[in-house]
Design goal:
single chain, mainly alpha, two-stranded antiparallel sheet, 7 helices, 2 strands, 5% strand
């Protein structure tokens, strides 16, 4: 007795190698997964101790495997078909105004600019992103704290010397309070 594959050859072995049929991606994706491998990843994060490691992967989207409707992606017509046609006089006037605008140097908006709702924030051409230090937030905070404590000590010594020079004696409790106030004021500015 003949089997199903003998009766109906589903894939000809010759055609199968060069066919355009692609397998779906994992998790019900429509297209195959294009995730980068660990060495290909460019996004890095600080691991501590001056070392950098590749950042974590993003979570997969909840709408994997579903087709997005065209109505959510493309602006839909607001008026019935054919209502946009202008009369000869209106078309002539529109062309005249367009010409005048071009002569004045006013740029006509592209479709994407007309559809866009938000204003794009302009980045200064002088902006240069800060280089990654390779330290975690805790390490950066610790280093900054050490620097501030050292600076506070220097300022306290300066203010104490100034107090001794002015009064001729070591500061008492009230004098130390005044010195602390001056140091705090200097640190905040």
């Amino acid at each position: 007795m003949k089997t199903f594959t003998d009766l109906f050859e589903v894939y000809d072995p010759e055609v199968q190698g060069r066919s355009q049929i692609k397998k779906m991606g994992d998790g019900g994706r429509i297209r195959p997964d294009r995730k980068k491998t660990e060495p290909e990843k460019r996004r890095m994060k600080a691991a501590g101790g001056g070392k950098m490691v590749p950042a974590k992967d993003y979570k997969p989207r909840k709408d994997i495997g579903t087709q997005r409707q065209t109505s959510t992606r493309v602006q839909q017509p607001e008026k019935e078909r054919g209502s946009a046609a202008l009369s000869a006089k209106e078309a002539q006037r529109k062309a005249y105004l367009e010409r005048k605008r071009r002569e004045a140097g006013e740029k006509t908006k592209s479709a994407s600019e007309l559809l866009a709702k938000k204003k794009k924030t302009e980045v200064s051409p002088k902006y240069k992103p800060q280089k990654a230090s390779g330290k975690t937030r805790a390490e950066r905070d610790k280093q900054r704290g050490e620097g501030e404590r050292m600076l506070r000590g220097i300022m306290k010594k300066q203010e104490t010397d100034k107090y001794v020079k002015a009064t001729g004696q070591q500061p008492d409790k009230k004098g130390k309070m005044k010195i602390a106030g001056r140091v705090n004021k200097r640190m905040s500015t």
